[in-house]
Amino acid sequence: MGCSKQSPVARRFSWERTADVDRLRYLAQPLLSGEEITLSHHARYAHDLTPNDFEPPFDGIVEDVVQKGYVLHESLSDYMRPQWKQRSLEILIVDDPSLNACVTYDDGRDQVSIFRGAFEHIYGTILGLLSTPAFFPAIGNAEAEMPFPNLPREGFARVPVLRDASNRDPDTPVRFPNDQTRMTVAQILADLALEFLVYHEIGHIVGGHLEILQGNQRLASISEFEQAIDNPADYAFRHVLECDADAFACHVTSGVHTNDKMAALVRDLVNASKWHSKDFALLTYLMAIGILFRVLHPHATANISESKSSHPHPAVRACLVASSTVARAVFAGAITWSRVNDIMKDSVRNIEDVWAGLFLPGHNPEPPELWAQHVGSTAMGLFRSYGNARALLDRYARLPRRWDDWKWPETSSSV
Ligand SMILES: [Zn+2]
User: Fold this and answer.
1) What string of DSSP letters covers 287-326?
2) Distance, CA 11 to ligand 1 centroid (Å)?
3) Which of 50, 72, 111, 232 has its CA at 20 to 30 Å from residue 343's CA atom?
4) Residue pLDDT, tens place only, 395-407
5) Closest CA to 95 of 61, 34, 48
6) Cα(212) to centroid of ligand 1, in Å?
């Protein structure tokens, strides 16, 4: 920090990034029955962009995301089925402003590509939301934030992340929270969202989804950029694959973020002493993932059941991940059912309300109760399809599917 070449935008980021180092250390533990992972750092970056192309603190953020992906993938190699043990992975940061991430394979190795635009959109939206008093009002001093009347139709401005100033758009100012605590929470949420995104991509790979989709094509790929699909059987199956990749990412990240040490660390970082640390950890986790899905699907249809796209509706994905995470936390004794409703209301429900209040892309046009019903019933339908596909998913997965443990009662499906 303190680099004189920093832009005014970069100077707004002033936190210490200690929490991330700890999270990296605890990475993948829940997936591997509590075994300690030995970290080994690899200097084998082969990005289209390198961390050096990014302005601080994004250089460190990009490096963390890539490193986490490599560490997780390496730690799983012992558990892979024999034919996949030696398979290598390449994580690329693509110099493209689109909001996308994708997986493919090339020349005998797998590739995860995260587009530069994903960083820009995720940061822009999360900072923008925290600068809105109606969003997460219980954290920091929300009254210090100013309501704003005119958002561009496409939503919050992207945060410029590259050192190269020619990529910046001077006409669309980035919105930052005024309150420093809310600024810090924005950082935590954005880090979590990016972490979830890279593990979601790795979930597609280790879930064997590329092999499932390969069929007669020589090259298969899965992109997070939503595509319209005409055949209901095809999009229903793609939804199952997305659900499986979400389950993988959720399995890896939710336990890490809500374990005792991380929960206490995150709560102390933002002085949220009025919260139980586990409740606060769960709340921030659900916020981060819920926003990520909303950001990834700017063109979500208003009518959930009419969605004919490659991905489930973002509110449905959030509902499933939230239900799974909450169920795990309850079964582990970390929280009680009596707190669950409040946490769901303060997280996924708050996102949907703010999204609608600001008329952000793909917002809910229905009364909140009706919307919650539609989200809940569609989520249950997807959950059942996911369960029905278990035999196929088990057959193709490159390692035993330990992440498929979505045991939760139907009562937890409301948002
Ligand atoms: Zn996906």
Assistant:
1) HHHHHHHHHH-TT--SSGGG--BSS--HHHHHHHHHHHHH
2) 33
3) 72
4) 999 998 888 765 4
5) 48
6) 14
Give the mean pLDDT of 201-226: 85
Rounded to 10 deg, the angle between the 277-296 and 337-344 helix axes is: 40
| Residues 287, 292, 295: CA angle, nearest 5 degrees | 125
Segment 292-325, tens digit of pLDDT? 999 998 877 767 776 688 899 999 999 999 988 8
Residue ranges of domains in the chain: 9-413
Alpha-carbon gap, residue 374 to 301, rounded angstroms:
13
Which of 96, 103, 102 minimizes the C-alpha distance to 119? 96
Query: Per the structure block, which two tokens stand in for 118?
Result: 């994903």
In one-letter notation, the amino acid at residue 300 is A
Strand (E) or helix (H) holding 105: strand 101-106
| Closest to 234 in 3D by CA, of 248, 256, 261, 213 | 213
The answer to whether residue 57 scores a pLDDT higher than 70 is yes
Reported as a single tens digit per residue, the pLDDT across 99-141 is 899 999 877 889 999 999 999 999 999 999 999 999 999 888 9
335: its two tokens:
């929280």
Q: How many CB atoms lie under 10 A from the CB of residue 271? A: 12
C-alpha 274 – ligand 1 centre gap (Å): 36
